[in-house]
Inverse folding.
């Protein structure tokens, strides 16, 4: 099975940098995803890591360490619209299904 | 980009009735679709994996006879909540995995079900 942990809530200031951590314990691993979800809406894809290291995409970067079962999502130059829930999801090796963490609610303040 | 639609977006029904939710991949073929349920301020809970042309694989604790899933074509999967009760009220989200880009899931906009 999968066990995914991420902080429940975080607060940061507009223009700043925030790092959202995710740790996981899994029987199989076939990639880690980060999604952004605004209230009442479906998740939108942010990043995908299957190999160790940092993936950068604009203001968002995601890091993975498979040996440590650890990932983080880094958001730079925070904007008010970045206030949302950020979901970490791990895909297992069997059915290809993903298990989601409970999400981190990020509040960006002026 | 790949688009997944869900219909209806909102539905209110009486207790005991059945509700069908459609999930369509609009511009790509999806051999696999996933159905999730999400409670307020909680994450997505996988209900079942739907494979085109075969029976769905349900997660532990999800009643097969209550949540009927049909994946009749490469672009359509349906979830039918049978004999709905107030505790079935939730946000139901589907996602589809492309036959080409198998690593990525594309999510539908979700369906808000309210059972009175």
């Amino acid at each position: 099975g999968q066990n995914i942990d991420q902080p429940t809530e975080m607060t940061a200031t507009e223009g700043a940098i925030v790092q959202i951590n995710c740790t996981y314990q899994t029987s199989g691993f076939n990639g880690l995803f980060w999604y952004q979800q605004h209230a009442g809406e479906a998740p939108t894809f942010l990043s995908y890591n299957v190999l160790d290291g940092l993936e950068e995409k604009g203001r968002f970067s995601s890091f993975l360490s498979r040996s440590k079962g650890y990932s983080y999502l880094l958001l730079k130059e925070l904007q008010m619209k970045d206030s949302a829930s950020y979901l970490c999801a791990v895909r297992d090796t069997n059915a290809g299904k993903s298990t989601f963490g409970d999400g981190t609610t990020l509040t960006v303040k002026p | 980009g790949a688009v997944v639609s869900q219909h209806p977006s909102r539905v209110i029904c009486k207790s005991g009735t059945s509700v069908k939710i459609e999930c369509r991949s609009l511009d790509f073929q999806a051999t696999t679709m996933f159905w999730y349920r999400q409670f307020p301020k909680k994450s997505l809970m996988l209900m079942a994996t739907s494979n085109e042309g075969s029976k769905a694989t349900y997660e532990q604790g999800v009643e097969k006879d209550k949540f009927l899933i049909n994946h009749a074509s490469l672009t359509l999967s349906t979830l039918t909540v049978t004999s709905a009760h107030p505790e079935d009220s939730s946000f139901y989200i589907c996602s589809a995995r492309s036959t080409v880009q198998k690593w990525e899931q594309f999510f539908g906009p979700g369906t808000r079900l309210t059972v009175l």
About this structure: The two ends of chain B are 37 Å apart (CA to CA). The mean pLDDT of chain B is 90.
